[in-house]
């Protein structure tokens, strides 16, 4: 793949992540219970910021250091998990544990849906690169 094709792949990934997070966020925003609003907003911000950054970092790695892609995916997975644990810990600390089960369930919907998308998208791209 050429560099412009790889940049286009990164753009497609970014647009898909934006669309996917909006498709998760909007129904919860308009039809979800009041107790789901803050967890949904935190999940949206987490997935949006992490995966947009992840897409552009993937582009940087694949254009400069293709042989490090496996290490990149491993590092990304570990960092994503640790960051999710930090978000859960901060929420628990900030709210003193109130509504933690609701937060965990709503946040994990974002985490798992975009994790599945990430895995499928980049497994397909790794075969083409």
What's the SSE blueprint?
Blueprint: H1 3-31, H2 37-64, H3 69-95, H4 100-128
Helix pairs in contact: 1-2, 1-4, 2-3, 2-4, 3-4
Describe, in plain words, how this protein is organized in 3D.
Helix content is 88%, strand content 0%. Helix 1 packs antiparallel against helix 4 and helix 2 runs parallel beside helix 4. The protein is elongated, with a radius of gyration of 16 Å.
Which features characterize this protein?
129 residues, mainly alpha
Q: Helix/strand/pairing class, anyone?
A: mainly alpha
What pattern of helices and strands is seen along the backbone? HHHH
Rg computed from alpha carbons, rounded to a whole number of angstroms: 16 Å
Mean pLDDT: 87
Number of strands: 0
Number of H- or I-type helical stretches: 4
Précis, in short:
This protein has helices spanning 3-31, 37-64, 69-95, 100-128. With 129 residues, it is mostly helical.
């Amino acid at each position: 793949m050429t560099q412009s094709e790889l940049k286009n792949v990164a753009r497609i990934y970014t647009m898909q992540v934006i669309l996917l997070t909006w498709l998760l966020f909007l129904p919860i925003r308009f039809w979800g219970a009041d107790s789901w609003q803050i967890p949904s907003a935190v999940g949206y911000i987490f997935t949006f910021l992490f995966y947009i950054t992840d897409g552009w970092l993937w582009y940087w790695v694949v254009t400069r250091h293709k042989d490090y892609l496996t290490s990149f995916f491993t590092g990304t997975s570990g960092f994503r998990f640790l960051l999710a644990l930090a978000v859960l810990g901060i929420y628990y600390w900030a709210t003193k544990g109130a509504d933690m089960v609701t937060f965990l369930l709503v946040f994990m919907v974002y985490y798992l849906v975009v994790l599945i998308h990430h895995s499928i998208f980049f497994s397909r791209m790794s075969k083409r690169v």
